[in-house]
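In the previous lecture we treated proteins in isolation. Real proteins rarely work alone, and many bind small molecules. This record shows how such a complex is specified: first the sequence, then the SMILES for fe (ii) ion.
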Amino acid sequence: MSASPQIAAFFDEATHTVSYLVWDAATAEAAIIDPVLDYDHRSGEAGTASADALLGAAASHGLKLRWILETHAHADHLSAAPYLRERSGAPIAVGEHIREVQRLFAPVFNMPELTRDQAFDRLLAEGETLTLGELCIEVLHTPGHTPACVSYRIADAVFVGDTLFMPDYGTARADFPGGDAATLFRSIRKLLTLPPATRLFMCHDYKAPGREHYAWETTVAAQRKSNVHVHEGVDEASFVAMREQRDATLAAPALLLPSIQVNARAGQWPGPEDNGVHYLKIPLRMKPGAQA
Ligand SMILES: [Fe+2]
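The predicted 3D structure, ligand included, written as tokens:
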């Protein structure tokens, strides 16, 4: 068995997102997974303190950044991937089904460029592998939360994105465009057939009833034994019924519209208008039954 990667987690309390710096100790080659841009939607101001913390940690360990990896087009934060690419020269990679997400959202935002841009440097297929020094990053397509979700397996560690949450919190919603609860269930089952001691790293944590601290690392064995939504014995039909019922009660994430139009383009902002300012779009519509 190959060596385990070194892993440092960075928790962003504003969006409840966990970003990871992962590296091969033998060669000092590193990857960053799911970096967050500090974005204040009230003012439109963005900052790079979170991304700079990742770069600072990489520098302090003497690491060379080889990959910037996204598990999916996030709907709750803006990605800092372009900033990190500019600083490091490392390419931005995502699952190849991002094309489906771009196709779904191009008409929503009237942004045909979403489907034309070569925004990402690398689109990854199921089973594809990337080199990280002497380690290997294996791409697992794990759709359901979104059609493009991937998990990254590096030796005994898997970065699952929003395919799973901590055992006491359960699973992510599956009601975004292109999401599907049955598909999510099958992706989860695929992850939970990995060896029981496999370490699983979450992309989000919200605490859970009775838990006062944030947590993001668990194992296949712990998920199988005690995940409140998908522990052993839960079948697909009952998971789908639970997930769909729960999703029907959830409001849109606060940063859904800003996030998707940016993250479907690898985190790049829409081009500046003639005054040099970048703008986000909010498609407006009346509620069904409401009078304009
Ligand atoms: Fe997500």
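Summary for your notes: The pocket of fe (ii) ion is lined by residues 72, 74-75, 145, 162 (CB under 6 Å). The chain has one domain: 6-258.
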